[in-house]
From TrEMBL:
Protein name per the record: CBS domain-containing protein
Keyword Repeat listed: yes
UniProt source species: Zizania palustris (Northern wild rice)
CBS domain span: 337-403
One Gene Ontology term, aspect cellular component: cytoplasm
Length: 403
């Protein structure tokens, strides 16, 4: 069962990975936002500038990681809207060199998983040289097509491979592996991990009951102050008289991935946690209750017809006319930002580990909230499952004796 962890190495996961594109601490938050939009987990590594233009990435120059939540919180505190996005990354990022580890491509997967269970979120791995992935089948997960010359075994191709290796020795190429990459690899090896993936998460001890939460009526900024390092999320709940908590949504780097940071910052500074996570529904018809509705023109009333409520009409810029008030413009941006994001990602305590892994991978999420299967009400929260919980579960019985 555990042979996959001992017979595979980190280099097997680098097939198809792009070369590292560095974000430096003197870059702007605008540049960081663009980098985050193209990265997993809603966060990117931050590096100190190169001493020379051709200096390769290294763990010594790694500074820390910046997330979508970090940017939104900074802009909210700065209170200057879009202008805050011109600030440099160094003003926002919290130094934490332990989040990234430079590893050799020959490092066993079991050793890499142990590092990630200790808090490492990225691996910096060398790509140049004669290293080859285990097979071409993993490349389809990154590019949607086979990489060329991956399965060449002729003498001529071997000779060209050696020439490529010698020429590449003078030019360093590195890629970054994330926990999402590890999870993607595990999804492809479910058969080798049986019967663990088909077991309920409640029986595997995967559910983490220690999570950070805020009440829906609390200010959204209060949630920012409680965000843990992993998973980087705070759940927003409604607490019943019996003490049970019903999930409303969550505030996390994953939820703010690719968001409008100025609008998110305004919401963090002015709305309650409940209003922040609810935002607008898929039809853009849910109002932000803290924002007064703009006046409705008589032509709109005539279009709707007498005796019908104007609020029943679908929310859109055409239905309310031109929003010349800055507050109402921000309300419109808030509605657009949260469309399709208001529903938290949840599973049942009886869900299988494979199902939870598939949820996280398909949504590119860092965590899944777990609700009680036996509760009479929907959404009663019992815990959370994150990357480390999954890695602990799949490696719990891994040892050389079982491989």
């Amino acid at each position: 069962m555990a042979a996959v962890f001992f017979h595979h190495v980190v280099g097997d996961l680098t097939v198809g990975k792009l070369e590292v594109a560095e974000l430096h601490d003197n870059d702007t938050l605008d540049a960081a936002a663009r980098a985050i939009a193209a990265s997993p987990e809603g966060a990117v590594p931050v590096w100190r500038p190169r001493a020379t233009p051709d200096e390769p990435p290294s763990g010594a120059r790694f500074l820390g990681m910046i997330s979508a939540l970090d940017i939104a919180a900074f802009v909210a505190v700065a209170g200057i809207g879009d202008r805050a996005m011109g600030a440099v990354v160094g003003e926002v990022v919290q130094p934490n060199p332990g989040l990234l580890r430079e590893v050799d491509p020959g490092t066993r997967l079991i050793d890499a998983l142990d590092l990630m269970k200790q808090g490492v979120k990225r691996f910096l791995v060398r790509k140049n040289g004669t290293w080859r992935g285990i097979s071409k089948r993993f490349s389809v997960l990154y590019y949607g097509k086979w990489l060329k010359n991956m399965d060449s075994t002729s003498p001529s191709s071997a000779s060209s491979s050696r020439q490529l290796s010698s020429s590449a020795s003078s030019t360093y190429k590195f890629c970054c592996l994330s926990r999402e990459d590890i999870l993607r690899f595990l999804i492809g090896c479910l058969g080798a991990l049986a019967p663990i993936p088909l077991s309920p998460i409640s029986s595997l001890g995967v559910i983490n009951p220690h999570y950070c939460h805020v009440d829906a009526s609390a200010p959204a900024m209060e949630a920012i102050q409680k965000v843990p390092p992993d998973p980087c999320a705070v759940v927003v709940v409604e607490t019943a008289p019996d003490g049970t908590r019903k999930i409303i949504g969550d505030i996390s780097a994953y939820k703010l991935w690719k968001c409008d940071y100025a609008a998110a910052a305004w919401a963090l500074a002015n709305l309650s946690a409940g209003q922040f996570v609810i935002g607008a529904d898929d039809n853009e018809s849910t109002p932000i209750s803290a924002i007064p509705e703009p006046p409705i023109s008589s032509s709109l009333v005539e279009e709707i017809g007498p005796g019908r409520s104007p609020r029943a009409k679908k929310f859109s810029s055409r239905s309310i006319g031109f929003l010349n008030n800055q507050l109402h413009q921000m309300a419109f941006r808030m509605r657009s930002m949260y469309r399709g994001r208001s529903t938290p990602l949840t599973c049942k305590s009886t869900s299988s580990l494979a199902a939870v892994m598939a949820q996280m991978l398909s949504h590119r999420a860092t965590h899944v909230w777990v609700t009680d299967e036996e509760s009479e009400e929907d959404g009663v929260l019992v815990g959370v499952v994150g990357y480390i919980d999954i890695f602990n579960a799949v490696t719990r019985t891994a040892s050389p004796a079982t491989s």
